[in-house]
Amino acid sequence: MEPVVYTYRTGRYFTDSGNMVAWVATAAGMILLLQGKMAGLLLLPLGPLIYFTYSVVELDLRGQTYRDGAMLLGMKFGRKKRLPDYGFLYLKKNTYRQVIWARVSTATFRHTVYDGYLGFANGVKLHLVRKPTKADALQKLEAISEDLHLELRDLTA
After folding, report:
1. How many domains would you assign to the chain?
2. What keywords is this UniProt entry annotated with (predicted)?
3. Which of 77, 83, 59, 57 shows the shortest CA–CA distance to 68?
4. 125 and 144: one domain?
């Protein structure tokens, strides 16, 4: 029997800098606990809680709903919405530019990533995959395509 609820982790919910701040707070909590201050108990769980929070997309085929939200320790948060007719999965190539300014010069870095989306008939799209290589993104999207019995289109050419 096929499962009727599919959950796909789409990435981390917090940014890298948010993760770092949480781990610093956790380390500060440990130091406070070692010094005998009970206030450290408040800071201690921040790192693991933030580190284990992911962005997810959940598709419930029986109830015809979807949820685009967050997952914390296996619990999913986010408003359920009615699942419109979905058309196809597609892969796009995106280039991001990051400019770093210094006092006397600037540096520009370009990052190419491959994003996979689920397109609905009403024009709404859900972001499912972001990978640095095309092969990794296609592999992940092919698995989703088999789960949902959808056509996969490669729009990177």
Report:
1. 2
2. Membrane, Transmembrane, Transmembrane helix
3. 57
4. yes
Residues 6+ positions from 11 with CB-CB distance below 8 Å: 54, 55, 130
Closest to 118 measured CA to CA, from 148, 93, 139: 148
pLDDT digits (tens, 9 = 90+) for 24-73: 988 999 999 899 888 888 888 888 888 889 999 999 888 888 899 999 88
pTM of this structure:
0.75
* Measured distance CA(131)–CA(117) in Å, rounded: 12
What amino acid is encoded at 28 in this protein?
A
Residue 13 and residue 92: Cα distance in Å, rounded?
21
DSSP letter for each residue of 117-135: EEEETTS-EEEEEEESSHH
Range of the domain at 49: 1-82
User: Which among 51, 59, 52 is positioned nearest to 8, based on CA atoms?
Assistant: 59
